[in-house]
Amino acid sequence: MPELISLASPEGRRLYRQLYSTLRTEQQRGAGETLRILWQVATGARTVQEYSSNDITIRYPLGLLAGTRLWLEEIVSRYYYSTVLSFVYGGAAILLVVIGLRRFSSSISDTVVLLSVGLEALLLLLLFTVMFFSPAEDHDPHTAAIGELLSEVGEIGRDYAIVLHQLETTTTAITELVSQTTRLAAAAEQAAQAASAATSPSPALVEHLRSVNDALDQLRTRIEMLADAVGAIKQDRIEHAVRTQLAQLLEARISDRSPSAPPQH
Questions:
Q1: How far, in Å, CA of 37 to CA of 62, rounded?
Q2: Average pLDDT of 223-251?
Q3: Are residues 107 and 150 in the same domain?
Q4: Residue 20 domain boundaries
């Protein structure tokens, strides 16, 4: 039975790629199942007779790390690079649509935007892994496109940060405007109260004026009473003076009519 030292040898790599063609073209297995089988073969299988007509024995299986590296280099990077790249483009398109809708509509929440950014980041990480494990002799025809894609993603992130900054600035300005409007309303209310107090007397002043008016009424009444008393006193004095004058006149007339006294010797 033919024997291979390991799948990492040039002969083993050719056998590994032939096994992929057998699984995909001859046996018509799906992409997921093919990837699973090839990963199992790369990490621990000692023969491929179960999946191919070749009865070659593998002396030294590669193990988990080396087998996964071979699987990424020979299968994923060679045959699924365009698929991974299409997923990256699709994620970028979704991110662009979400951010575009977020600019013009409030129905898209920040959580949806962050999930879209996270999805695109995972896809870019997957693309980085595939490109990192690409065989050295392979030349990537999509390097320029990937660079443009990364540049566009960077611009999207920058635009999103600018939009968030503008929203925060607008929110702060609106908050300050509301605060100033509240202060102006309070000042206007105080001015209205001051104007009302200036145009109408206060209750204390009205009560004080009433007290002064009552006091003036009482003083007027007392002055009238005093005037009446003074008038009565004057009337009594006049009558008394008249009586006195009449009494003197009567006394004088009585004295004039009396007989003369005899002369004395």
A1: 15
A2: 77
A3: yes
A4: 1-79
